[in-house]
């Protein structure tokens, strides 16, 4: 989209309309069109899918070119994240948003806070996607409005150099709209329910949907116990449902992220259907715990018996009716899950792990890549991991294995602040800092995300403010701890009226009413106190 071409195109339309449109300024209309690049969620989904596909190809050629995101639970949080990225890093390239089902459940359900068990309303995820993109589009509008205002000021002053500079910035404006990887949990029901929910999410703007192989009505957070997986045929049906939804809506290159929880899931709700030895169902059933039997005398009332490996197997079944997998089969099940998903329409993988360990992830990815060489992961850099303790223990173990003296460290107490400035803990922090680079290079991770970081940052910042404001600091807690830092660090929200759209509204009033416009940004607007800070 070219700004100058938009002006010319609209000028032609206005001129053709005759004198009744004489009050319409083509450049103002072009500005409004330029500020509203994406007309629908599907426009966004198609645009961002192209970005993700390009990024995936670049990662395949060079694994240092991985992508990142942070989970956001409100449109404003997502907006401020992208504004910060553009301010500090100058580009949004390879930075996405993640929409966490955990945070939707905990923060966006009409039931109030809920655990991550697919109990929140089905349409709440699509609603959050739409909200996030509404705020990102508003960020575009606001930033361009500032550029247009500056352009008018430069023209009024006759500053041709500044005018040319601003026109270049407008022509090369980078949108705040980036890809969202959106969590559809286990599909919220059968494959038809999954398809219907996927359509809502894509229509809201999602170009990438992440789905897990847990049972819908038994779904648990990936970092809690009691996870129950489904046979591959069930999961493949839901992968197909997602692809059909993308194709129906014209997002032909939409991205499916297939998540496996098998590493930590020891249960299955059902025995897979199998038609012949070695098929997918037979492979799934081969991991079942149980005992082989020789006669009907070994079968009690209600027992289930299947034929496996040429023998009769009585699977271990709990009082809940669920069946158990054999201990130690998690990695093998993960590899089978991932290979199967990639061979049945998935584009990216998500392996939910119990700790952030590059070696463990690499072991699984190397096995997957024997079957699918370009397999790559979306990885959850989860707040459920105790990163400090995990990496300190990893360093401790590596040093001990290498024969280095670790006698001054207590492995079980490495979280203690007493160790914070030690050589071991400095090494652990260095490994945490390089984890994303190392894991992308060594373990096939294309996209690193933190599922619910802004849940924690909101809690931490609110705790700090409340502690001081309701304590001895009073108003100083806000002024010193928030507002003064906003001013010093150039946080645009210090001018909160502008961030909420007041100046945009003034601009539009001037377009619509000319000199008769009643604008909010007059001399008595207290936001003027921040104009020159």
The radius of gyration computed from the alpha-carbon positions, rounded to a whole number of angstroms, is: 28 Å
How would you write the strand order of the largest sheet? 12-6-4-3-2-1-14-13
Mean pLDDT: 92
Proportion of β residues?
A: 5-15%
Helix content: 40-55%
Using the 3D structure, state the CATH architecture of the largest domain. Alpha-Beta Barrel
User: What is the terminal-to-terminal distance?
Assistant: 34 Å
| Total number of domains | 3
Q: Would you tell me the structural class of the helices and strands?
A: alpha/beta
* Number of E strands: 14
Which residue ranges are poorly predicted, with pLDDT under 50 across at least 5 consecutive positions? Answer: 221-225
Global outline: globular
> At the fourth CATH level, what is the homologous superfamily of the largest domain?
Phosphoenolpyruvate-binding domains
User: In CATH terms, what is the fold-level topology of the largest domain?
Assistant: TIM Barrel
Number of helices: 18
CATH class of the largest domain: Alpha Beta
